[in-house]
Specification:
Layout: E1 2-9, E2 14-17, H1 19-29, E3 36-46, E4 52-61, H2 69-80, H3 114-118, E5 125-128, H4 143-147, E6 161-173, E7 176-188, E8 192-194, E9 211-212, E10 215-216, E11 228-231, E12 240-245, E13 248-251, E14 256-257, H5 261-264, E15 289-291, E16 295-309, E17 313-324, H6 328-331, H7 335-339, E18 357-370, E19 376-396, E20 404-427, E21 430-443, H8 452-456, E22 466-467, E23 474-485, E24 489-490, E25 495-496, E26 502-503, E27 506-507, E28 512-521, E29 525-526, E30 550-551, E31 555-567, E32 573-580, H9 595-599
Antiparallel strand pairs: 1-6, 2-5, 3-4, 6-7, 7-16, 8-15, 9-10, 11-12, 12-13, 13-14, 16-17, 17-18, 18-19, 19-20, 20-21, 21-22, 21-23, 23-28, 24-25, 26-27, 28-31, 29-30, 31-32
Length: about 600
């Protein structure tokens, strides 16, 4: 029996600074408080005899509320150093500062606050696990540390926690061999997530709403207590136009709708209007967030075999479930992504609630060892894999206050394959291998970003079963020949173990291996068009033939690997190797216009 326990906590940090951009930012941060004149304190001009000269001057009015932290800090530095302006006048609180007239050495990041560098979401710096000055941070910050402290805007590092426990046992029952295993995995992103992906601010539920605009509300019978309420106007609601339960939308009469557009079209401005808990205060707060909810994945593994002919022919069956954690780019949700979301409509943000994807594998197989020396082996197997809760892009259309794109556990795929492998060993120094695989792969997304072009073309979230690009290869044939020339003396047989060529008594291929591999595969599917069109462009090309009705041509390439071990006098060894890919320089074709080209030309 085997038992194992694993605990891991990663810490990921990042810091990026657009130094050149600071030269554009600094002029925007100075002199804002000096945009008006102090008309309440005129300065009259007189000649030497005290005669009014018909000229009135005004000093600049210092509006401290408009002064940026950068201006205040940099101005104090200039005053302390006795700096002068272009006219030779000492810098004071009313001086117009020309940042372009100073040397780069006069500036440093400490002059800026984090809020100024983040620049309302169009940042010149991005960071997590560091502060805006590049200092590594420790511990865990609260939401208030970012929302209330404009000077620091502290953002946590990404510190996910992964724990797993594994138990496996192998036993026999007559001729049957069983291997049973169970793995328990828990993934905790150890961060906050949005309580409601459809709104940055809390929305009233049907249970909480009894009166609207002085009128008693009667909800339809199929509307549950926790359904979110949508009205005709965010700030001045007078009627209910719809409801939402998770991702499912309902009309005011309780009838289900396909999406949110029908509800949005009933509002005063054509934009979605949730009945907010506090419509007068539309700022993200801790009440919009909650801690990540870790889940435990129970992953069984079953394998058993029984001999058809003892020590020669075996039949086996296996079943196992695997879990894969999401990557940081898709799952790490930093507070600044949400805080500045209103200024980034249509942008892609991470999903703090993203969970693991699950893959279930089924396989049956047959092994046969044969030959007079039992040096030949044949293996036949068939497998089926199903991927659930796969990662994919999804547009949250008519979210409030803006629509955005994020990653969700939304995709699904299946892979069916048949394999046949033949191995022949002990042909002197030669070993041969030949294999064939037939594979079919279909699903709703070939990779995590496969829906990006469809979303960019402003199409709805469509999930159709399609061939999965490079996985749906259908035919793969692989053959290899390996020569291994060992050296030494067989004491039992009193023979030399080296079986390779010699020049005189020199064993020229001693301790050398040579491998030649040939790979042949049929082409991946694609949708041909009448003319090439750049992916992401507004132009469209007509589909030629059927969607995914064409395949790339068959291709073959040969690889060569040579390795040699050289024993040194001190007992150590040196290995030399040569790897040559595509020995015959066959042109390898690449496909650039795949699935997305078709999706962007469909009429919905």
């Amino acid at each position: 029996m085997q038992f194992d326990f694993y605990l891991e906590q990663q810490t990921q940090r990042s810091l990026n600074l657009s130094a050149n951009g600071l030269c554009q930012l600094m002029p925007q941060l100075v002199n804002r408080q000096l945009s008006q004149l102090d008309i309440n304190h005129p300065i009259l001009s007189y000649d030497a005899n005290g005669v009014f000269l018909d000229t009135i001057k005004y000093n600049r009015l210092v509006n401290e509320k408009e002064q940026t932290s950068f201006d205040r800090t940099f101005r104090r530095q200039l005053i302390a150093n006795g700096a002068k302006d272009a006219n030779g006048v000492l810098i004071n609180e009313r001086s117009i500062i020309d940042v372009n007239s100073y040397a780069p050495s006069d500036f440093n990041l400490k002059l800026f606050t984090a809020d100024e560098l983040l620049n309302n979401g169009n940042g010149y710096v991005s960071y997590f696990g560091y502060d805006h000055l590049g200092n590594k941070t420790h511990g865990k910050f609260s939401t208030a540390d970012f929302l209330q402290d404009l000077k620091k805007r502290s953002i946590n590092a990404f510190m996910p926690i992964y724990a797993a426990a594994w138990l496996q046992d192998q036993f026999r029952f007559k001729d049957l061999v069983f291997r049973l295993g169970l793995r328990l995995e828990q993934y905790d992103a150890n961060q906050f997530e949005l309580k409601d992906p459809w709104s940055l601010f809390p929305i009233q539920t049907a249970k909480e709403l009894n009166m609207l605009n002085g009128v008693l509300v009667q909800h339809p019978s199929n509307i549950g207590d926790e359904f979110k309420v949508y009205v005709n106007d965010v700030k001045s609601p007078t009627e209910i136009v719809g409801y939402r339960n998770g991702d499912r939308w309902y009309n005011a009469d309780g009838s289900e709708q396909n999406n949110s557009e029908f509800i949005a079209n009933k509002t005063s401005n054509g934009q979605i209007a949730p009945l907010l808990v506090n419509a007068a205060h539309q700022e993200i707060t801790a009440s919009s967030l909650e801690d990540y909810k870790p889940s435990i994945n129970v992953l069984p593994r079953i394998w058993f075999s029984f001999p058809l002919v003892q020590d020669k022919q075996t039949f086996y069956v296996s079943y196992d479930v695997l879990a894969q954690r999401p990557n940081a780019g898709a799952s790490f949700l930093s507070i600044d992504e949400l805080y500045y979301l209103k200024n980034r409509e249509g942008s892609t943000i991470s999903n703090g609630s993203l969970g693991s994807r699950l893959r279930t594998n089924y396989e049956v197989g047959y092994k046969n060892i044969f030959g007079s020396k039992l040096n030949k082996g044949l293996e036949l197997s068939a497998s089926y894999s199903e991927v659930r809760k796969d990662f994919g892009l999804n547009r949250i259309s008519q979210a409030y206050p803006v629509s955005y794109v994020t990653y969700r556990n939304i995709d699904f795929s299946t892979i069916t394959s048949f394999n046949a492998n033949l191995v022949i060993n002990d042909l002197g120094p030669l070993s041969l291998f030949a294999g064939y695989m037939l594979q079919f792969a279909d699903g709703t997304g070939s990779n995590i970003n496969s829906q990006s072009a469809l979303i960019a073309s402003n199409q709805p979230n469509l999930r159709n079963i399609i061939p999965l690009g490079e996985l749906d290869v259908r035919h793969t044939i692989k053959a290899s020949a390996t020569f291994v020339f060992i050296s030494g003396w067989d004491k039992k047989r009193h023979t030399n173990l080296y079986k390779g060529p010699k020049i005189g008594k020199v064993e020229i291929l001693k301790n050398m291996s040579i491998n030649i591999t040939s790979n042949v595969y049929s082409g991946v599917p694609y949708t041909p068009t009448t003319r090439p069109v750049k992916i992401g462009a507004t132009d469209r090309a007509q589909v030629k033939g059927a969607p995914f009705g064409a395949r790339m041509p068959w291709q073959q390439f040969v690889d060569l690997n040579i390795a040699k071990n050289i024993k040194l006098k001190d007992g150590s060894s040196l290995q030399l190797f040569i790897a040559v890919q595509n020995v015959f320089n066959v042109k390898i074709l690449h496909l650039y216009f795949l699935l997305l080209d078709f999706l962007m030309t469909m009429d919905f």
